[in-house]
Amino acid sequence: MMRHTRRRAPLYALLLCLVASLPAFLPAATVFDGLDMGNDDKLLFRAGTGGDGSLLQSALFITRLGSGQIGQLTAFPERIELIENGRLLQVRNPFGAVRIPVTGGLPRSVGGFPSFVSGAVVQAGRTENMAASPDGKWILYVEPTTSAFGRLVLVDSATGYRVPVADNVERPGKIFPASWSPDSRVFVYARDRRLFFRAVDSANAPIIDERYRMVGEGAIPSIRWGVAGDFYYLRGSTVYRVRGSDLFARSLYSDFLEIGTVAGKLPFEFDPNFDSFWNAPDGSAILLAKGGRNIFYFPL
Fold first, then answer.
1. Among 104, 193, 196, 241, whose Cα sits 20 to 30 Å from the Cα of 151?
2. Domain that holds residue 254
3. What is the number of H-type helices and E-type strands within the chain?
């Protein structure tokens, strides 16, 4: 609990100080309450979202008046991931993204990702999607440029260093338009109904043209990663297995040579808009859900 001063400032003065310490842009659906002033000029307050038909939720924040810096103390787990080999929980909600050690501790903001404490606009009711690498070092998110499209950005979660990856990427709905390899070294992203790959160790290197990094036609549901760093890619009625070691070499010949090795054939065409699949850990078979109605087992 914070100790109160005996001399209480008028409520309107506290509100003015709070507004001066908060981000410059706030949506109309964001409300503040629970102001609690301490002896050390620290102000504890609660911010809430909702009232526009979205999920009602709130978070507790603390700020030192006049500093402009805000700390987040609680986070509603609207979306949650386990990263860094199970050592960290990543929690997302309309206030941004934070990471919490599974052993306990206060939330820590993810550098480079839009959040309330960094001064970004909190979009009423909307939780921006992202894809964190399994080791937790990198995140991918789509920076909105229009209501439907944005720029795919790679961010170093420790430093906030940002690397633009691709423009005109569809803003994510239920499925994020990129997928990480298990070793966090490579990711595949979707743009204009085609799949491309990129290695994170090339973040500071000259960008190779996308045509040399193309996997083929499809969307993110068209691929599934294996435990060894390879992935399975479904296009039409063909199942390809793409090894990580072959990915960069064979992409140079993508104009006239299929990327990957044919691992199997399906009796029908795979539609990434409605179908999904899962590969066995040993790569011996896949399960395929056709249109969300029927499940098939196919040995490879």
1. 241
2. 173-300
3. 2, 23
